[in-house]
Design goal:
Blueprint: E1 16-19, E2 22-25, H1 29-40, H2 44-52, H3 55-64, E3 74-78, H4 84-93, E4 98-103, H5 106-118, E5 125-129, E6 142-148, H6 157-166, E7 168-179, H7 187-207, H8 210-222, H9 226-235, E8 239-246, E9 251-257
Helix pairs in contact: 2-7, 3-4, 7-8
Length: 259
């Protein structure tokens, strides 16, 4: 078997968490994730376009269509990276509203700030270097919280979900856009070959970093499936939780409310 082939994910030992298919001390995962995104920050948007043939933009557009935001409201984009979701929400809330783009990685947050500046979207956007597990915002601060392709990199996912629920206002919603488990018959083996062969190759050729994209493929396989994530959101106190599969379940959008 090739060293890049998909393996059967195992539960980590006590005191450790998964970092792809590796086990690392829980206290060290954030450091490893930070190194990945320090490495890929400058090429992150280009790689997203190449890896998904631009389809990631359609996934994000669908997500923005589910925010329910109105002019004058407040929104938070957690692990928002280069700011695609934040930019869309900034337009939705208008100049009287507020969007906070947060990320634990300073390099990614810097790229996001530059991208939003280039788009002329700075008057109603703020930036926060923040850990999703302990967001530095007051209770009930936001009408919508989003996290797109970031939850799988979080060390303590239940803590992050609880933290995001805490900052939601009553009636507000959490949107989790994340890679998930294919549901279309015959799609999984094709997806596995693409993930463990093409993605690391693209990473090496374009970003000069195959290891980070090997981690990407592994972290997707370690992430909970649709129903498990739904249960985690419910356990965090979110209600009316539902999910919608995109591209045959390769990606899913989960939505939950705080009442």
């Amino acid at each position: 078997m090739s060293e890049n082939a998909p393996q059967t994910p195992r539960d980590p030992k006590p005191g450790t968490v998964d970092f792809g298919y590796k086990e690392v001390p829980a206290a060290e995962k954030a450091k490893h994730v930070r190194a990945v995104f320090d490495s890929v920050a400058d090429k992150y948007d280009l790689m997203n376009d190449l890896m998904s043939a631009g389809v990631h933009r359609l996934w994000k557009r669908y997500t923005l269509g589910q925010t329910g935001l109105r002019p004058g409201q407040a929104a938070l984009d957690v692990a928002g990276g280069t700011g695609d979701i934040a930019a869309g929400m900034a337009r939705q809330v208008g100049e009287r509203g507020l969007v906070v783009l947060s990320d634990i990685n300073e390099a990614m947050l810097g790229v996001g700030r530059n991208r939003l500046l280039d788009r002329g979207l700075m008057r109603n956007v703020r930036f926060s270097l923040a850990n999703a597990e302990c967001l530095p915002f007051a209770d009930q601060s936001f009408d919508c919280v989003t996290i797109a392709f970031g939850l799988r990199n979080v060390t303590d996912k239940p803590a992050a979900l609880a933290s995001m629920r805490r900052v939601l206002r009553p009636g507000g919603r959490l949107l989790v856009l994340e890679f998930s488990k294919p549901v279309v018959p015959g799609l999984k083996p094709i997806y596995d070959v693409y993930s463990f062969s093409v993605l690391p190759w693209l990473g090496a050729k374009v970003a000069g970093d195959s290891d980070s994209y090997q981690y990407l493929a592994e972290s997707i396989r370690k992430f909970p499936d649709q129903e498990t994530l739904k249960g985690m959101m419910q356990a965090a106190g979110l209600e009316d939780v539902s999910h919608h599969n995109l591209t045959g379940g390769i990606v899913a959008l989960h939505k939950g409310f705080r009442y």
